[in-house]
Amino acid sequence: MSAPLKVALLGCGVVGSSVARALVDNGDDLAARVGARLELIGIAVRRPDRPRPDVPVDPGLFTSDADTLVRSADVVIEVIGGIDPARELILTAMKHGASVVTANKALLAEDGPTLYAAAAEHGVDLYYEAAVAGAIPIVRPMRESLVGDDVHRVLGIVNGTTNFVLDKMDTTGAGFAETVEQAQALGYAEADPTADVEGFDAAAKAAILASLAFHTRVASDQVHREGITEVSAADVRAAREMDSVVKLLAICELLRDESGTPSGVSVRVHPAMIPRSHPLASVRDAYNAVFVEAAAAGELMFYGPGAGGDPTSSAVLGDVVAVARHRLAGGHGPVESAYADLPVVSMGDAATRYHISLAVADRPGVLAQVAGAFADNGVSIETVRQRVLEDGASRAELVVVTHRAPDAALRATVDALTGLETVDEVVSWMRVEGA
Amino acid sequence: MSAPLKVALLGCGVVGSSVARALVDNGDDLAARVGARLELIGIAVRRPDRPRPDVPVDPGLFTSDADTLVRSADVVIEVIGGIDPARELILTAMKHGASVVTANKALLAEDGPTLYAAAAEHGVDLYYEAAVAGAIPIVRPMRESLVGDDVHRVLGIVNGTTNFVLDKMDTTGAGFAETVEQAQALGYAEADPTADVEGFDAAAKAAILASLAFHTRVASDQVHREGITEVSAADVRAAREMDSVVKLLAICELLRDESGTPSGVSVRVHPAMIPRSHPLASVRDAYNAVFVEAAAAGELMFYGPGAGGDPTSSAVLGDVVAVARHRLAGGHGPVESAYADLPVVSMGDAATRYHISLAVADRPGVLAQVAGAFADNGVSIETVRQRVLEDGASRAELVVVTHRAPDAALRATVDALTGLETVDEVVSWMRVEGA
């Protein structure tokens, strides 16, 4: 057994306290797996004097001086979250020779290249399995298992709160506002749910997944983002009628030119209908799952709990063991791979499919006029279903599902439909994925 | 970019030719991801003169002299399969300083420790993602992602042929023999399907998974193995009546003593009923999936194609990139972790649940006698369902599902039931998992 490795923990919230407990309670097993003991040398918190009965460590380990702490560690675990002071602390840690394990999706998605560059400069590891989809191993499979393959597309349910809300809307028929309140009461949604329901959290994860999948730098502000606040009970019901379900998806797609050469990547977060037969449709409650399509591997799915102290701690500790082993055996893990350097295309250029529900006049010629609006914008229709509305003799509902077309063309089609004299209302439109 | 790394390929069947094609066709991408070109220096085959139009390499690369080839390689890819000559070639390769990537589940499950010891002695990598569940990243997640956690149980559908057969029996109601013939006609089963349908293939994978999950050496001959040849259409129908489905499962379980200390591992392959609501129940056709229960992570599932040239090649190439990076950066990947060294318990000591279907006399006192047989063997009953058989006035069917009990006690109960005067026949019994 080698000399102990010094581990510094930054943050002691739900995840941090679970990590601290595991380092203490499973110390013998972790030592056997690493080949050296992991010695917790300090926990940086804002209020070191606050009693923490659930963290069974010497109270003297708590400190408010994170900057000094990280300078003497071999491995720094950052679970504070947010941009500052996490960024400076991670950079200081690396500068002083520590490998870093972080769960900080926001920082990675905003400024990953700076962190990667520092890791390379100082010859240390930067690991972040916990940043995407909690306990589910997805960063390591993307960085390592699939690195010999070509990933075409990633479809991820990477935010537990929104999946919980959409799943409940599907099973109860209730609306968005009511369901969010229920999620808050049950602890599945924050008092201020903006980061989840507006898709910010999923967008950061999408940026990380796209960067890994396509060997290209993608920052969170390059991710097209639409949340679920506009998803109505009627949308969910419309999906149900299509034998589909509404999910908030993080979508990373490789685009190719006519010769088949990769020409760009589309990275976006938005609600979409997916068929109930798709493996992602059965992801219930607050679970997460990432569906990956690769040239050789085919279709893979990774499923599990996407959040919570213990699941996130599992991912953090797997990384801690990995970087600790590297310190003992020499070498290091994968570094940033951004060689493909593909452009991130705008949402208008992303190829998607639409489900559009229209209230129209029930008389001859309406369908021709509607179909004309699609054709004028170069959008091909896959199916049309017409239903006479029960409450009115001369009104009907048209449900159109399109083939894939640039999102801009589909938006323009919706605008054109709104202006048609025979169309009372574009009742709803939503993108369709996974078909 | 560093100097090229010399890659030797052993075997050029379905997997080998896919690997060779990828090394050629994706050479630029692989070089960018590794930091050096992967130069294919030879392909060892039995008949080097045979035309191979689907492998776009210089025909001069084919050789029958595998032994010489492996001595000059940096990375050796072994996709011959079987014990000999694969074992000697791998050992020779390592002795001469090559890292090895293999898909050879049989060899790893029979003699993994010898290979691990050689890798450690010579300071090279031994990687084998493709040995379990094809393209699905499961070896790396078990060796690395979950290494900071404690795995309780692994339930795997790790043989595509048997899953295809059982899925078809479920959807068509047909019997085993008929369905195997259909699977053979469609290319999902070999002309001699023994290795698959008798569970040998799954047992080798179970041994590998258990070794990784529990840091304990498990060889394939320590795995309790029952195939699917005895699974009847009636069994599948009985499962359906329980809202369950029959799957061939590779099960790896950690046993604990009364104080909670790990006391042994149960590793077994057998058909079992699982509820249709379990994530494994929706694994259709020849797909594979591995369901993992861990202390902190909770329940995870890894899903994808478990076989085939391209999917297996994807897993092989991920490993090739990993070991190639280690050669450039120094260091190496995880080594054997067998420190826990837990005993493998016999099947009789494994805790399982049974579904038992009995034909009995329909008269007072029968249930008391049947229940007595369970009680005498210390087996607790969860549910009993009684149904009068339509074809006879005085005969009934009893379906009993038990709580968990040692398999030996359940076997003894079945024997005792067979001897009861009121029991005409033990119509069927099957283990129940995943509840």
What order do the helices and strands come in, and which of them pair?
Two copies of one chain form a homodimer.
Chain A: E1 2-10, H1 14-25, H2 27-34, E2 36-44, E3 62-63, H3 66-70, E4 75-78, H4 86-95, E5 99-102, H5 105-122, E6 126-127, H6 139-145, E7 151-157, H7 160-172, H8 176-185, H9 194-197, H10 200-214, E8 224-225, H11 233-241, E9 244-256, E10 262-275, E11 287-294, E12 298-305, H12 309-329, E13 351-361, H13 366-376, E14 381-388, E15 395-402, E16 405-406, H14 407-418, E17 423-432
Parallel strand pairs in A: 1-2, 1-4, 2-3, 4-5, 5-6, 8-10, 10-17
Antiparallel strand pairs in A: 7-9, 7-11, 9-10, 11-12, 13-15, 13-16, 13-17, 14-15
Q: What is shown here, in short?
A:
Chains A, B: One of its GO terms (biological process) is threonine biosynthetic process. The first copy, chain A, is an alpha/beta fold and 435 residues long.
Give an overview of the whole structure:
Chains A, B: GO terms for molecular function: homoserine dehydrogenase activity; NADP binding. Chains A, B: It catalyses: L-homoserine + NADP(+) = L-aspartate 4-semialdehyde + NADPH + H(+); L-homoserine + NAD(+) = L-aspartate 4-semialdehyde + NADH + H(+). Chains A, B: Its cofactor is a metal cation. The structure is a homodimer. With about 425 residues, chain A is an alpha/beta fold. The first copy, chain A, has three domains: about 1-135 and about 310-330, 3-Layer(aba) Sandwich (Rossmann fold); about 140-305, Dihydrodipicolinate Reductase, domain 2 (2-Layer Sandwich); about 350-430, Alpha-Beta Plaits (2-Layer Sandwich). Helix content of chain A is about 35%, strand content about 30%. In chain A, the strands form two sheets. In chain A, strands 7, 8, 9, 10, 11, 12, 13, 14, 15, 16 and 17 form an eleven-stranded mixed sheet that branches. In chain A, a hairpin with a 5-residue loop joins strand 9 and strand 10. In chain A, helix 1 packs across helix 12 (about 310-330) and helix 7 packs across helix 8 (about 175-185). The longest helix of chain A has 21 residues, at about 310-330. Chain A is elongated. Chains A and B meet through helix 2, helix 6, strand 12 and helix 12 of A and helix 2, helix 6, strand 12 and helix 12 of B.
